[in-house]
Specification:
The protein is an alpha/beta fold. Helices cover 40% and strands 17% of the residues.
Amino acid sequence: MFQKNPVYPVIWHKDSVSLIDQTRLPYEYSYVEIHRSEDMAQAIKTMIVRGAPAIGVAAAYGMYLGAREIKTGDRHEFLNRLEQVAQMLRETRPTAVNLFWAISRMLKTAYESIGTIDEIKNTLLETAQAINAEDLQTCHKIGDNGLKALPETPEKLTLLTHCNAGALATAGYGTALGIVRSAWREGRLEKLFADETRPRFQGAKLTTWECVQEGIPVTLITDSMAAHCMKQNLIHAVVVGADRIAANGDAANKIGTYSLALIAKAHNVPFFVAAPLSTVDFSVANGNEIPIEERNPAEIYQIGETILAPQGVDYYNPAFDVTPAELIAAIITEEGVFAPADLKKYQNKQMA
């Protein structure tokens, strides 16, 4: 019934990183082997690996791969070149704060490590593996904490999610979808509604794929059907992930999340954000300061080889939007469930 075949999108294997190629799902379940830091940067940029926590894990391994490529015995030169690797990885996805968090942790490890260059490299690999293991544990905690936050009635709930905040977006198990998994495990889930999530269809391609693998009942809807479903009392709660959360609780997530939160508010449906504390960026006061990535307009006008729009049309393709804190019922982390206004109480935990 539950998690017979766990999904792990980022795996260290022998001397390389194995990534599930998420651009090929659900039609093909295959892995890409990453041996170089430049290839990891490209994999993050092209969304072979995606989802803020998974990007963080991948970037940590990318930092190690970059360190491994540096051939010098001089500590100062080694650290300078590692900074260049860090900058290359930072430029891949500007909104996902876990990327920057993981890179900063790897750099801190390098600067604080003693011993030879080879010993520093070994410590960097151990740190990347620790980030990987910690994220998996974090997701399980988020899932169980979220289960406690869900409405008490009815006994079996119908939940709605947007994009993919599942095992594929993390080290495994998921954040928002981790809550769904925990609810299914405990017999509290009737079914999951999944938004298709235009323009890249992460909900249609990835969230539904994960659910089908584990036998979790899932119903796919278009993004524009959420209001109708809530009006028909088909949704008891909304659970989504986040790519960056500001200090005041404003949350950036895949485009379409903000409108979903507005719809939930209009229908008195609780709207939950699930994310690890590493997704909270305390250097950003509010959502207005969160950089919003704009992606290739081909994501809008083209599906496969099929062109959907006429020539001469202009395009605007922001990858994320920001949901104001006042629309969020609670933020669910590995440390518990709390109101957005209480985030700053956890700043010391995140920085530890």
